[in-house]
UniProtKB/TrEMBL annotation:
InterPro entries: ATP-dep_Clp_protease_ClpX, P-loop_NTPase. One of its GO terms (cellular component) is mitochondrial matrix. One of its GO terms (molecular function) is ATP binding. This is Uncharacterized protein. GO terms for biological process: proteolysis involved in protein catabolic process.
């Protein structure tokens, strides 16, 4: 995926959707390793709202894990509302 210009996540995601086992062999992976990959899948690039949702909504989300870790060390949890959006942009 190296190119001379900047590639957007959407373009990269669409290129990865077309990867096949033969492409992995041409890239240099050994056949024994490729044979252990029963299915090749690609993930679509997430937008800002989806990334914030992943950080905050699941039962075992990263934000809840960090709050718990901070509370174990007697550190008051910070409310990071807009900071999730800032982190999702990076």
């Amino acid at each position: 995926m190296r190119s001379s210009g900047v590639t957007s996540p959407t373009v990269t995601s669409s290129l990865l959707e077309s990867v096949e086992s033969g492409d992995l062999a041409k890239f240099g992976l050994i056949p024994e390793f490729i044979g252990r990959l029963p299915i090749l899948v690609s993930l679509a690039a997430l937008d800002e709202d989806q990334l914030v949702q992943v950080l905050t909504e699941p039962k075992n989300s990263l934000s809840r894990q960090y709050r718990k870790m901070f509370s174990l060390n007697n550190v008051s949890a910070l409310k990071l509302g807009s900071d999730y959006r800032l982190a999702s942009l990076r």
